[in-house]
Amino acid sequence: MRFVPFVALMLVAGCTSGGESTPSVSPSATASASASTSTDLPEAEAPGGNLASAGKDADWDTFVLPCEDKTREPTVQQVVTADVTGDGIADALVARACDSSTVEVFDGSSPAQRPWRIDQPLLSSPTAELRRPWVTGLEVTSGEIIIKADGHAVGADSKACRKDRLVFAFKLVGTDFTQLRLENNPTGSCLPAG
Question: Taking the complete model, does pTM exceed 0.85, yes or no?
Fold first, then answer.
């Protein structure tokens, strides 16, 4: 059995980075597959491996949402794989940044060449956007998504430096993410720019 890099799979599958949007589906739309390591990439001759087989090695900047400012390219800050849907398959959480950060969650049972985004990106709510969060850490603990970020105080000048250390917690409830809590720890001084 011959394995090829994920980029080759994308070329064979005809994927492009031309701003295609990834459909959002319910986490109940899962296939029965077992999780595998990130080194077990799908074969180019038979594309169809699931996302869990590509994991952190996928070309994530191809799949995340584009920046609102079309002159900018999104930057992938961090990728974490963990079971968020509860189906026993590792899902992919991708922190991506433009002017601020969001976290997109992709269903691990979806096809590696066209992963399914679960619900809307985390940190994209109007309340979170006011803080202009910049992700500094991402983890999953007991099904909870914990996002650490530097951000602004609500009402702060958007051009001012970030001075608040934020911790967001989310959980998938049904097909939607629910924000469980937000901790705000003001530092009083400028945090390093992202």
Answer: no
